[in-house]
Amino acid sequence: AQKITQTQPGMFVQEKEAVTLDCTYDTSDQSYGLFWYKQPSSGEMIFLIYQGSYDEQNATEGRYSLNFQKARKSANLVISASQLGDSAMYFCAMREYENMKTSYDKVIFGPGTSLSVIP
Amino acid sequence: NAGVTQTPKFQVLKTGQSMTLQCAQDMNHEYMSWYRQDPGMGLRLIHYSVGAGITDQGEVPNGYNVSRSTTEDFPLRLLSAAPSQTSVYFCASSVRYEYNEQFFGPGTRLTVL
User: Fold this and answer.
1) What's the rounded Cα separation, in Å, for the pair B98 and B107?
2) Whole-Å CA distances, B38 to A96, B6, B57
3) pLDDT beneath 70: ranges in chain A
4) Among A73, A117, B26, B89, which one is least packed by beta carbons within 10 Å?
5) What is the number of other CB atoms lying within 10 angstroms of the CB of residue A85?
6) Which portions of chain B are predicted below pLDDT 70?
7) Which residues contact A56 (CB under 8 A, 6 or more apart)?
8) pLDDT tens digit sequence for A20-44
């Protein structure tokens, strides 16, 4: 069964420093996708970055990178040069589907990590 | 292009009342889903749909019904509201069967007294 674990309920980081948010997952599928979303205090869900299970290179999007270690089933988010606007909840998510002949296509989320950037 | 829209934004119900949370998208996405968000628990999947006429259960389906008669709309029904259903509800949509990100609506904050 799918499961996402985020073991850091809250994190603090100094402005301009880098921070790593942990995410581990459990799946029996060989093919899946991993996502990170940001939720600021205003409540909207903002997509940050995606990693496919067959992607050999770690994904990067601007200041965001995903440290993907498939054997360890981990997909940690690294934010470089933290900014005050990075203060938010961060959610790791995983998508699995079987094939196009079935309706199985689930996206589940972890409990989230609250990041606070200190000036 | 409105993206994913949800109505209402806020709702207060009494225990036992029924209501429907509306969700619509204009991106022609076949995949749509409903989540509830509670403090410390992240987003939990309630129901999802891979196309018109096809729905399936998520992690926490009890107490909720869905239907998908069109590609655009995916309403969530609470038949008999309970205080345990007090939560923020998010609807999302995406391309089907692809590892693309979901697009989220703004959420509905529901309080059941």
Assistant:
1) 24
2) 23, 18, 19
3) 99-101
4) B26
5) 9
6) 97-98
7) none
8) 999 999 998 878 899 999 999 999 9
- Phi, psi (5° rounding) for residue A15? -50, 140
pLDDT of B86 reads: 97
Contacts A104 to B, Cβ<8 Å: 56
Look at residues B19, B13, B15 and name the one whose alpha carbon lies nearest to residue B77: B19
Cβ contacts of B41 within 8 Å, gap of 6 or more: A111
What is the C-alpha to C-alpha distance for residues A63 and B7, in angstroms, rounded to an integer? Answer: 34
Local structure of B99: helix, strand or coil = coil
In order of A28, A30, A53, A118, B20, the CA distances from A73 in angstroms are 11, 11, 10, 30, 38
Q: Distance, in angstroms, between B81 CA and closest chain A CA?
A: 24
The DSSP call for residue A42 is T
Instruction: Tell if the CB–CB gap between B45 and A52 is shorter than 8 Å.
Output: no
